[in-house]
Amino acid sequence: MGTTRMAEFKGIVMFRRDYRERDMLVKILTDHYGFKMFFIRGARKRGFKMGASILPFTTAIYTGTINDEGLSFIDAAKDVSQYQKICQDILLNAYATYILGLVSAAFGDARALGRWYPKTVAALGAIDRGLDAGVVTNIVELQLLANFGVKPNLKRCVICGQTQGEFDFSESYGGLLCRKHWSVDTNRMHLDKRTVYFIRFLSSVDLLRLNSISLKEETKQKLRYVLDQIYNNDVGLNLKPKHFLDEMLKGSQNILNSHFGIDK
Ligand SMILES: [Zn+2]
To answer: What does UniProt give as the signal peptide span (predicted)?
Structure first.
């Protein structure tokens, strides 16, 4: 078991909760040490100096003591800034919370994230800049699959290796089927061209260079469906933030329907 004193690290505050009478536990995703739980003494006392740096969806450069096991500690923070839109918009907040939950589920508490730290920062930054949160979330979901041990072949037909033409997605074959081989899986997803195109595209797009993205509502709903299937059936994750997000999406759909007088 190791301890690193005077460690300087970047971090994103994931959540916090009250602890004892005056203290708090704050979970932070750090660049070098992965997800860590920090004990913040006196965080609930009036006049606590580091208050702004331990708010959810805050990023900062922290100095403190990192313990491999058990709680870690923060002594100071600088360059504190907050994802403003994510903090103000409950739906964006739900997406961002789900993304952090996914990354946390993929890496656990004891592992450094490597390139997934900048990728996570980029995903939250993109949402905060106003890019479509649903699509950004799909990118994270697609690109994290390998970390969950699910590696669908999205490059070529899993039977014959064909890379061009029409494809569908098969869960049981773990990837794409070309038109010639659709017959091998009657339970294939029956996706349209556009959805397959975006599954392939988003699975390899560089989150760090994502400047704009625009998908039809119908395509977005299909992507949501495909990823729900894969995550429910193949990954087998059951995350609270995902349930919350689903409820939010259902709610906003109902509001839209009643607003525009659309009946189901
Ligand atoms: Zn084929």
So the answer is: none
pLDDT at 259: 55
Tens-place pLDDT, residues 215-229 = 999 999 999 999 999
Does the pLDDT value for residue 252 go beyond 80?
no
Residues 206/115, Cβ–Cβ less than 8 Å: no
Residue 254 shares a structural domain with residue 212: yes
Indicate whether 231 and 154 sit together in one domain: yes
Query: Which pLDDT tens digit goes with each residue over 112-138?
Result: 899 999 999 999 999 999 999 999 999
Residue where one domain finishes, among candidates 82, 110, 134: 82
Q: What is the 3-state secondary structure (H, E, C) of 191-239?
A: CCHHHHHHHHHHCCCCHHHCCCCCCCHHHHHHHHHHHHHHHHHHHCCCC
- 182 CA to middle of ligand 1, Å? 8
Distance from residue 170's CA to the centre of ligand 1 (Å) = 12
In the reported structure, the alpha carbon of residue 176 is separated from the centroid of ligand 1 by a whole-number distance in angstroms of 8
32, 130: one domain: no
Where is pLDDT greater, at 252 or 170? 170
Contact 106, 144 (CB under 8 A): yes
Q: Are 216 and 240 in contact (CB under 8 A)?
A: no
